[in-house]
Amino acid sequence: MEMIDDKELRKALAHNIARLRKASGKSQDALAEETGLSRITLSRIENGHLTPGADTLYSLADALCVPADSLRQVATPVEF
């Protein structure tokens, strides 16, 4: 299994969370409320400025109805 660095992981998380949130039709406000995050914190995660901890990652995955591991998958390079 290939290891990815922190920056690449943060980008993958940001991309996947934003993509899945939009696909589910949820606003940042709605997803933040559902997970107990502030909208600003969720925005920082989606913009790749903050890496969520394990509890937050599981809360986001649960709210988005996906396995937590799927949020960490690097499919294509994402530019910021």
CA-based gyration radius: 12 Å
Low-confidence stretches: none
Spatial gap, N to C terminus: 25 Å
The residue-averaged pLDDT reads: 90
> Main β-sheet, in a few words?
none
Shape: globular
Question: What structural category do the secondary elements indicate?
Answer: mainly alpha
Q: Could you tell me the strand content as a percent range? A: under 5%
Percentage of residues in helical conformation: 55-70%
Q: How many strands in all?
A: 0
Following the backbone from N to C, one meets helices and strands in this order, namely HHHHH
Number of helices: 5
What features would you describe in this structure?
With 80 residues, this protein is mostly helical. The mean pLDDT is 90. The protein has helices at residues 6-23, 28-35, 39-46, 54-64, 68-71. The protein starts with 5 loop residues before the first helix and ends in a 9-residue tail after the last helix. α2 crosses α3. The chain is built from 5 helices and no strands.
Which key features would you list for this structure?
80 residues, mainly alpha, globular
List the helices and strands and how they pair.
Blueprint: H1 6-23, H2 28-35, H3 39-46, H4 54-64, H5 68-71
Short description:
The protein is mainly alpha-helical and 80 residues long. It has five helices and no strands.
